Amino acid sequence: MEIRNIAIIAHVDHGKTTLVDKILHATKVFRDNQDAGELIMDSNDLEKERGITIFSKNASVMYNGVKINVIDTPGHADFGGEVERVLKMADGVLLLVDAFEGPMPQTRFVLQKALHLGLKPMVIINKVDKPNCRPEEVHEAVFELFFNLDATEAQLDFPTFYGSGKNGWFNDSLTPTTDIIPLLDGIIKYVPAPIVNEGPTQMQITSLDYSSFLGRIAVGKVARGTIREGQNIVLMQADGSVKKSKVKELYVFESLGKKKATEVFCGDICAVVGLENFNIGDTICDPETPEALPLISVDEPTMSMMFGINNSPFFGKDGKFVTSRHLRDRLMKETEKNLALRVEDTGSADSFLVFGRGILHLGILIETMRREGYELTVGQPQVIVKEIGGKKSEPFENLVVDVPNDYSGKVIDMVTRRKGELLVMETKGDMQHLEFEIPSRGLIGLRSSMLTNTAGEAVMAHRFLEYKPWKGPIPGRSNGVLIAKNQATTTGYSIDKLQDRGSFFVDPGEDVYVGQIIAEHIKPGDLIVNATEGKQLTNMRASGSDDSVRIIPKIQMTLEECMEYIQQDECIEVTPKIIRLRKTILDEDTRKKFQKMLKTEEVS
Question: Which backbone phi and psi does 303 adopt, to 5 degrees?
Fold first, then answer.
């Protein structure tokens, strides 16, 4: 059987998952009267809510007797670890570009990986039905990008398709058609069939699947020979050890599910059941001739956060898993399938240092754990500092902001204050396209203030560049916070009196504890306040007059916004039902002593 393995790569929101939907519908995976919904591949709850792809997934369709294995990949650089390993399964890539925005920073990041692996690219310019779209200019920009990334002659000779995923057509010219058949024909014509290597079995595990019945399942592309059900194999591991094992069951991908197979041939993607203690990057080989394939290299993490047990007075009220053992086991389990994540033990048994690619990467992990019933506290995200050539160095990123002309001055001012340097400034219609080089530290907390200052109009994206010498201190949050004085329930009467002091994160009737952050102060410096005082009722004061209290609703912050908001001495308490901000040291006297100690250390 003929096979084509394709990975779809693009920047966030350029239409990858919608394109997969159209391919599934065009190849009659569903009955004509079946309502499969939209964004079929984004099956995880968090993916549906946020409208983004987090985990790469496989599907397979039949077209004109050819089996096409489709791999949908995430567009955020934070999930780059997912993309880097699944590209090993593909023979060609479909690079999807928005007809208005053109190639964006994350497009460059993934394309670079694909070109290095020698994959054959096809370019699809999507959303040509948008007003202000400029497909010809975008085509030139894509060619330039390929050239800058040192593409080979063959890769530079890429075929281009135009269309609109939303309207369901793609063609090799700008003439609208009724379907995406020209694109499917193009995939069969331009994407090479996998190279068939005869010889003993060899397959690298590039992805993991999990089933509550079968346990962990290894997914990968057969690189040489064939693999059979019941075959004795050896597992070549990263540390050089060799383990004997046996293939219990074999599955190939069919439509959106898997189908049992007795034998899988070279070039096809399959799932192997029955292997013990394997990791991504291990090679399955024939026992007679064990040869390991080169390991999968994944870019280093650039950010770290302290994860600890929930030690607030309200611990254990919501969650099922609250001990440090639960937390440790869950983090270690995550590192098995999340390649870009690293976990290290700290001096304390109750906290762990977790390294990831960015705030979104770590935020998704915390949100997933929270939904599984874990309670934990997380500290302020820190960038990873290295010593390079005797100099203290930090990660720098390339930041791209598209913003209406009226707001460009504000954006430039905000970024330069955070030690960013403006490199490119172009006008695209009524939008300004700005590119900066900025330390990763400067990005923490930038998104929320950027959206506030541009009335929500700014579109920003960033990707890691390299380590450069330390840029010096970056100003953090300018305002202090209001801290709860005692443990009780907040009252409307108290909050009403304190409203001119700051903006509240709690409503009346919420339980608070000593050291919890309940509002943002209007001035720098922290203030301890009593928000739990009730109104003293006497004959002169009727309880009914409390209704006249007008309280501004509390500020709702998402987990990522909280992570960007907190300072060094603060942390977030995350439970399945609630997210609270608090001081790391709850007791005021202990906190002051600790800060004094830090100041004397700095002076000495």
Answer: -140, 150
User: How many angstroms separate the CA atoms of 518 and 528, rounded?
Assistant: 10
Q: Is the distance from CB of 517 to CB of 481 less than 8 angstroms? A: yes
Q: Is 579:562 a contact under the CB 8 Å cutoff?
A: yes
Torsion sign over Cα 453, 457, 463, 465: negative
Q: Give the pairing type, strands 120-126 and 488-489.
A: unpaired
Residue 598 has pLDDT above 90, yes or no: no
Residue 381 φ/ψ, nearest 5 degrees: -65, 135
C-alpha distance from residue 403 to each of 273, 321, 482 (Å): 50, 44, 34
> What's the whole-model pTM score?
0.77
CB 20 within 8 A of CB 8: yes
CA 167 to chain CA centroid, Å, is 28
pLDDT band, very low/low/confident/very high, at 38 (cuts 50, 70, 90): very low
Return d(Cα 201, Cα 285) in angstroms, integer. Answer: 5
- Residue at token pair 């977790």: 354
State the maximum Cα–Cα separation within the chain, in Å, rounded to a whole number. Answer: 96
Contacts of residue 484, defined as CB under 8 A and 6 or more positions apart, other chains included, come to 512, 513, 514, 515, 516, 517, 518, 528, 529, 531, 532
* Amino acid (one-letter) located at 377: T
Residue 97 tokens read as 């570009």
Give the residue among 266, 364, 299, 338 at the shortest CA–CA distance from 563.
Answer: 364
Q: Which of the residue ranges 36-45, 265-274, 318-327 would you say has the lowest mean pLDDT?
A: 36-45
Distance CA 2, CA 360 (A): 39
Quickly state the pLDDT bin for 45 (edges 50, 70, 90).
low
Whether the CB-CB separation of 123 and 97 falls below 8 Å is answered with: yes
d(CA 14, CA 99): 9
Q: Give the separation between CA 248 and CA 240, rounded to whole angstroms.
A: 24
Number of residues in the chain: 604
Q: Which residues pair with 234 in a beta bridge?
A: 244, 285
Residue labelled with tokens 């694109």: 183
d(CA 107, CA 24): 24
